[in-house]
Amino acid sequence: MPHVCVWFVQHVVRALFLHKSRARSAEGTRARHDSAKVHNDNNINRARFSSIGDGVNTESSSRAMREWQEATDASLQCLGRVLLHLPSARHGSLTHEEENMQKRARQKVYCLLFEGILEGVFSTTCGERSSKSASTCNIPPAMATLLQVYNETDWRYPSVAIFVKCLHAWGLHEMLRRVFYHVYRRERGQQPTYNGKKSNDGSVLNNGAGCAAKPKRYSLSLYTCELVIESACRARDPSTAALAVDYMLSQLLHLRSAAEQQPHEDVRSCGDDNNTAAVVTEDLIGGRCIAEWTRLIHEEIVPRVDKVFCQTGIDTKRQWMDDISEAKVAVASAVQ
């Protein structure tokens, strides 16, 4: 059953992509024809021929757009039913292997759908029935459909990072904030230990010494955390932005530690022999090395968050910077 759901959603997204391509192609043909018509309107015969072609192209474009809208409307109605019955891993009768298979299937399904939303495969002008749930918010009907079924149990790697991108794209900061806090609280208890010293916010640090951390997976990439910070600053929510900075610093320390513990794995550094290489996956590190991320946080992100703290009057004494200062020192020491 899980594999069937993934297969079905893959075909739905693929079919909608083809409808989108046809609609865009027909629209482009119509635009080119309109442009040519302007240059030929001084010739009567050409103008008559152009008017006939204009009607054909307009009808073709309208038909392609209508078919895309109808396909999106039908897909959302069907997906709404499928997602409600998508197998979960909460049944006690499942084996450990079956539970993992169910979880992976759910994550794959939501990744496909959120990526489809970001790529615009769902028409945003679908029928009335699909648009009702989105009438109160300026969000795509597909996003409104997924918001009804994608819940806290699914806010995990890798789908939650794509979900955050969707929320950021449509300015849904309150929902984004709720998702980030849930992930932060869940993963905070899994923070690695750095020589047993805890900071004020409960994370454990050491001023740059190697950490004895067991491997873990972060649900949000460093790039996704940038989006959280950008959304929080725009919404004048510096507290969320500060936690996102803390999350990023913790992740950088973990990547540095993983590089030391598994030197045989693929690593990424900035080309400086003095830099400590980090074991990374592209979805977490986002094409930058640890030193580049550290400089970005220190020179751009922290000053921006501090500015919002001061503007809102929440923390004019910069206490938040003291709370993460030890983590900043630890990361800076790791890349020197």
TrEMBL record:
Give the source's domain of life in one word: Eukaryota
From the Swiss-Prot or TrEMBL record, give the protein name. Answer: Uncharacterized protein
Q: What is the lineage of its organism?
A: Eukaryota, Discoba, Euglenozoa, Kinetoplastea, Metakinetoplastina
